[in-house]
Automatic annotation (TrEMBL):
GO terms for molecular function: ATP binding; ATP hydrolysis activity; branched-chain amino acid transmembrane transporter activity. Belongs to the ABC transporter superfamily. SMART domains: AAA. The lineage of its organism: Bacteria, Bacillati, Bacillota, Bacilli, Bacillales. It comes from Cytobacillus kochii. InterPro entries: AAA+_ATPase, ABC_transporter-like_ATP-bd, ABC_transporter-like_CS, BCAA_Transport_ATP-bd_LivF, P-loop_NTPase. This is Branched-chain amino acid ABC transporter ATP-binding protein. SUPFAM superfamilies: P-loop containing nucleoside triphosphate hydrolases. Transmembrane segments: none annotated. It comes from the Bacteria.
Amino acid sequence: MLKLDGVSAKYGKYLSIKDIDIDVVEGEIVVLLGANGAGKSTTFKTISGLLKATSGKILFNDVPIHQTAPEKIVQMGIVQCAEDRKLFPYMNVEQNLMMGGYIHRKRKAQLKQSLNDVFELFPILYEKRNEAAGLLSGGQQQMLAIGRAYMAKPKLMLLDEPSIGLAPLIVEQMFESIKNINQEGTTILLAEQNAFAALSIAKKGYVYENGQIALQGTADELLSNQEVRKAYIGA
């Protein structure tokens, strides 16, 4: 479904990612592991078209997208859920969700069904649907951010650090929800520092170091790798 072939990208003169090769097969959950600043978010921004690749190719269902405008990429079926959530704090929960379904705004029945799907996935959001997004707890805000991305009914969802700053119980619920979204037919590319939780639901993973991929393998291979365990699992 998604292929990055030798992708590099810069912020100004700073080379943030270099020669990135990633393959995501339809239906998979694939995780990008690495410390802050390793290049995971830059990779997402480059896939989304928010940052242009300086070299290499990005293919989505065999169609090159590395020169495509971000709004066109969303219409093709790739939706990103940013690390810092980017909610509209003064709009209520339901209004935030409806913004996520903007590309389907002329399909009223589909929007209503998508809204029901999100409320089924995150029942607390139904209870809070008339409350301002800025008044929600951190966990609820993350649910809203994921729910808003899901409203677009993406083929591929890019989830950037969904567990950051959340309590362990909420993290467990979050990853269960991500697994459910995947089982409903959405392919997931997940950037995470919580290696154990991410690899427990992923098919395979890539480990970033200093803007490059240092290691890759199946989830089981990475979980059993002593370097990965020492760096990201603490064992």
